[in-house]
Design brief:
- The complex is a heterodimer of chains A (109) and B (337).
- Chain A is an alpha/beta fold.
- In chain A, strands 1-2-3-4 form a four-stranded mixed beta sheet, with helices on both faces.
- Chain A has a single domain, classed as STAS domain (Transcription Regulator spoIIAA, 2-Layer Sandwich), CATH 3.30.750.24.
- The mean pLDDT of chain A is 88.
- In chain B, the strands form three sheets. Chain B has a five-stranded antiparallel beta sheet. Chain B has a five-stranded antiparallel beta sheet with strand order 2-3-4-5-8. Chain B has a two-stranded antiparallel ribbon with strand order 10-11.
- In chain B, strand 6 and strand 7 form a beta hairpin.
- In chain B, helix 1 packs antiparallel against helix 2 and helix 1 crosses helix 3.
- The chains are: A alpha/beta (109), B alpha+beta (337).
- Chain A: InterPro entries: Anti-sigma_ant (IPR003658), STAS_dom (IPR002645), STAS_dom_sf (IPR036513).
- Chain A: Keywords: Phosphoprotein.
């Protein structure tokens, strides 16, 4: 399965757009792209999952690692654009209590 | 080794001359057979070239010097292949070694799981756990205590394979070392959470559903740590409901609290606990719906709990083309009528 990550630096945050599937095979690539951004002091990292239709538990693990890393550097991690399936996963695992996963899936701009 | 080489040399001379005389299919067949033998005897490509040259020199003492030298040249070219081949061989050996080590570990892991299924009065229990590869990240556990309560745990460790298996052994020992007196499900999860939080890497976590079935009162108390919801089948309503228990996965927050739920279990009712390998079963058409699982269970409801889980597994395995993508664990507890 494939995954693509696109990074843009915006005024006050780093935005990471992910497309495809996040599973045990693609997760390392996401970690490499995501974790260094969380290691900047006081940085806000936003991950847009609008084009992600599947995440497995390894993928969730990446986000948890990134969240802890962001907190260590006084920054924060926010995840947006979750589809129903992915949203359910964050909600079942209770991770919506610790990670800001935005509101509903955002409309395409 | 020297003997074997001489024998091969002898044989090569024979089949090459035969071929040069007759130039037929039979000769080519001999060449293929010889090729297998060369591999078996770990003869390198450059040795085969040199074998060819010496045989040629014997049979045609006056081959042109240029042709002869070209074989020396070819021999040099083949040395690279020879080295690659040697490396390939040693990797193959190394892989065989690793595989047998993993087999040992997988066998050891099997001993972490309960060896038998409890058979309390009036309760029919069935369970099946199948790893996607050799090592499993799923775990289940039974404790039948002296108060006639059956404790059941089902857990899924993030990821698969060796790291998940290592983590699972920690969970097993943590559960074994919990205090003797029975803990309520929510307290048990809070306890385990502390152990996991302090002992695993920051991107690892464990989901678990823990329940305690009181065999005398027929109540089921349970709590969940981010685990895939199960099902509750009510015989009176003839319906399946989702059995969910909200709570954060183990290993994320240092001080997590878990909510406890309770159900009164009527005769014929049953509880289905599962890992996400069951619900995240993926076919060519995409993921199956949770309703598909309840449909499969319903089809086999007339059977014993163990036969039910076995049948559901076989049908889901068939749906996925006999290729599990994730570890599979399914457990059913049914109050007998």
């Amino acid at each position: 399965m494939n995954m693509e990550v696109a990074h843009t630096r915006e005024e006050d945050k780093d935005l990471l757009k992910v497309a495809g599937e996040i599973d045990a095979y693609t997760a390392p690539e996401l970690r490499e792209a995501l974790v260094p951004l969380t290691e900047k002091e006081g940085n806000l990292v936003v991950v847009d999952l609008e084009n992600v239709d599947y995440i497995d538990s390894t993928g969730l693990g990446i986000f948890i690692g990134a969240l802890k890393s962001a907190h260590n550097y006084n920054g924060d991690l926010k995840i947006i654009g979750l589809n129903e399936r992915v949203h359910r996963l964050f909600s079942i695992t209770g991770l919506d209590e610790v990670i800001d996963i935005g509101e509903e899936r955002e409309e395409a701009k | 080794m020297g003997d074997a080489y001489l024998r091969l040399q002898e044989q090569y001379r024979k089949i090459l001359n035969q071929y040069l005389e007759n130039k037929n299919e039979q000769g080519l067949y001999h060449a293929q057979q010889f090729s297998k033998k060369v591999l078996e005897n770990q003869i390198s490509p450059e040795e085969v070239v040199s074998l060819h040259l010496s045989t040629l020199e014997e049979s045609f003492p006056d081959i042109p010097k240029g042709a002869q030298d070209s074989f020396e040249f070819l021999l040099e070219v083949m040395i690279g292949y020879g080295l690659a081949y040697q490396e390939h061989q040693s990797l193959k050996d190394r892989q065989r070694e690793l595989e047998s080590e993993i087999d040992v570990a997988a066998n050891m892991q099997q001993t972490f799981l309960p060896s038998g299924i409890p058979e309390p009065e009036d309760l029919d229990v069935g369970v099946l756990s199948v790893p996607a590869s050799k090592m499993s990240g799923d775990y289940y556990h039974f404790v039948h205590d002296e108060n006639d309560c059956l404790g059941v745990a089902i857990a899924d460790i993030i990821g698969k394979g060796v790291p998940a298996a290592l983590c699972m052994s920690m969970i097993k020992y943590a559960m074994d070392s919990l205090p003797e007196q029975r803990l309520q499900p929510a307290d048990l999860l809070a306890n385990l959470n502390r152990v996991v939080e302090q002992n695993v890497a920051s991107n690892m976590f464990i989901t678990m559903m823990y329940g305690s079935y009181d065999v005398r009162a027929h109540t089921f108390q349970y709590a969940g740590a981010g685990h895939e919801p199960g099902f509750y089948y009510s015989a009176e309503a003839d319906e399946f409901e989702e059995l969910s228990a909200k709570g954060i996965v183990l290993g994320i927050k240092r001080h997590a609290e878990f909510r406890e739920y309770q159900r009164v279990v009527a005769p014929g009712d049953f509880i289905v606990l599962l890992s996400d390998g069951v619900t995240e079963c993926r076919t060519e058409q995409g993921f199956i719906e949770r309703e598909e699982i309840t449909r499969l269970i319903r089809n086999h409801m007339h059977l014993s709990a163990q036969e039910m889980v076995n049948h559901v597994f076989h049908e889901l395995e068939k749906l996925q083309g006999f290729q599990l993508r994730d570890d599979f664990t399914l457990m059913i507890l049914r109050r007998e009528v």
